[in-house]
Amino acid sequence: MTDLELAKQIAATAGKLLLELQASGLFAEKALGKAGDRVANAFIMEALKQQRPDDAVLSEEEKDNGARLAASRVWIVDPLDGTREYGERRTDWAVHVALAIDGKPEVGAVALPGLGLTLCSEPQTLPPVPEKLRVLVSRTRPAKEAVAVAEALGAELVPMGSAGAKAMEVLRGGAEIYLHTGGQYEWDNCAPAAVALKAGLHASRADGSPLVYNNANPYLPDLLICQKHLAPRVLEALAEYSAAVA
Fold it and tell me: Mean pLDDT over residues 206-219, rounded?
């Protein structure tokens, strides 16, 4: 299998396992989320060990191994992005499987098992942009910066769960802008960034700088995904807001 085929198969299969775990009726809410994290992570780690034994792995659910810093190829995975949403049996949760090569998000698959979809890092036809823009925000704690940018652009707020679900909503046409400034780690956004970039979207840090992966500290707190022609407007509005509150 190619790296892309592997990423897609692993993400999709982990998603099926998570759905079966939900359907078992043996776990509920937080216990379901905890079990889902463990089951999906165990499967992903074993699959990568079998299929890509020479590659390094950075997973949210594994103890970090500093040896990955010397590796060119690093799989960056979030076995269950949106544990809360998964435990609540919502559909806005995801499985992230990405491969960063020399720090760049080259390959990615984001499974949305609740919707029966897996989106991969390959060229895609982007949806048309409506007159009234929509900005994706957290359904529980919308970032002030995203709210301010939405107001500046006259855009509507669209609350949603996991980072992966929000990022893929831009590809699916449910919104045009995903701006996050509330803190993330590499596993939260590597796969979504890889999928977005290959699809022809803009994906960067909130200041417009490139996303760089496999850092000693995996904290990567901010993210902007949107259609390319909207990026300058979003970045300008964000800069103006930041200057105003400084």
Answer: 97
